[in-house]
Amino acid sequence: MLLKRGLLNYCIIHTNTHGIEPSLLKYDTIANHFQSHDLNTSIELLFPPFLRTLEGHKLNALLSDNYPYAYLLSSVWEGVDAYILTLARESFHFEVQLINMAINRQNALHRMDLIRQRLENGTIDIHMPRAHVSRSYLNVDVAAAYEWEALVLVVPKSDQLNLINIMLQPFTIEVWTIVLAYLLVRQMIKLFSFFKRRCNRFTLKKTLTCRWSFGSFGSLTTVGVELVSFLLIEAYLAKITEFLLYCRFRSDPQTLDEFFRSTIPVLVPEYMDPLVEALGPTVAANFHAKLIRPDEYAKRAASCCARIHTLPRAEYVVRMGKYFDATLGRKQLYILPEQLTIIPMSYLVGRNFAFKNSFELFLLSVHESGLIGRYVTAHRKDMAMMERNFFTKGWLTLADLLPLFVLVGAGWCCSFAAFLSEVFGVRFNRYWARKRVRPFVAE
């Protein structure tokens, strides 16, 4: 393993008692086998360049749009895997023939089978971007990407109104207890005042003298009660308005158990069945009870069900413009906080991919040098800037002021209608009064 990782370049395999010098065992990453050398072998032969030149070799690389790993931007391939392919081309000095294959939810299964066939027959040398490969499903070789990604669920947000709970949510149980106690005391004070006004009608008024008088203290108490009532009502209405703006829908699942108890379906293509089975029998059974296939998913809305993605891909999906509801002003999808598992990522390589081990060593050296980390950091900053520009609408337009114009116009119309009704009402009353007045006839 140390030889294959490049951490150990040679090792003494055995010694001979007949006077023969010890042999050296070395692993050739290009030829993919061990070589035995004697101690008189030249240094150039023992230690060739770490990355041999492949000048003149042509690499057929298939790229599919899978942001943020590989994507087309102004007819140029961008993304971390496209960046790795560019670094490999500059290091190995080979030619790259890029093949683009558009994959969408209507043709995903057919394109996956087509990719597998082209890799098996050698038409394609390598498939970018990276993926999690199940050997039980694909009979092609893989090159380790030396990266592990968190597998998460992208879940649609609930669109069911939560009006009943919103009516109770503004106050906690303690505050509601105080409010109820306050209302009870207020009602008792009103009842006490009612009995005070009626006590003079009792039959025992001569025996029992009722001289209840609060004076200024009663007026102060009344003002305090009304002030507290006003503050409570205003606070309640303010909280109700806040919850109607931000919490008007039912709470979304936050754990896998809550998600499995919900009625949200989950998209599981056939090629992901081995991955789902690897999550455990309980989780796999729950997924199979809720799954829908791509054929059925293509007939539904894009945000109808949950999907399984790696964390970088999921962060992009929830930020996509087509999953932003402009009417409600919120994103339609969110990432379930509880992750499914951690999976290793790999690149699919074809039958004619002749330098698999050298490519893996190159990937390892690139990751250990920190180039990929710096690229990912810069890419995240660009994505944050893109999201900021997406959610910023820019200049105020007349379309934004249309609700204000409608509200002002409706207010003017109502005021004008009230004015006309009052004018005509007064004139009608005067006219009716003149009709009812009888003329005075002198005798």
From TrEMBL:
Keywords, ordered alphabetically: Cell membrane, Glycoprotein, Membrane, Receptor, Transmembrane, Transmembrane helix
Domain of life assignment: Eukaryota
Record's keyword annotation contains Transcription regulation: no
Parts of the chain that traverse the membrane: 166-185, 395-420
GO CC aspect terms: plasma membrane
Subcellular localization(s) per the UniProt record: Cell membrane
Membrane topology: Multi-pass membrane protein
PANTHER family xrefs: IONOTROPIC RECEPTOR 20A-RELATED (PTHR42643), IONOTROPIC RECEPTOR 40A-RELATED (PTHR42643:SF30)
Protein name from the UniProt record: AGAP006407-PA
Organism per entry: Anopheles gambiae
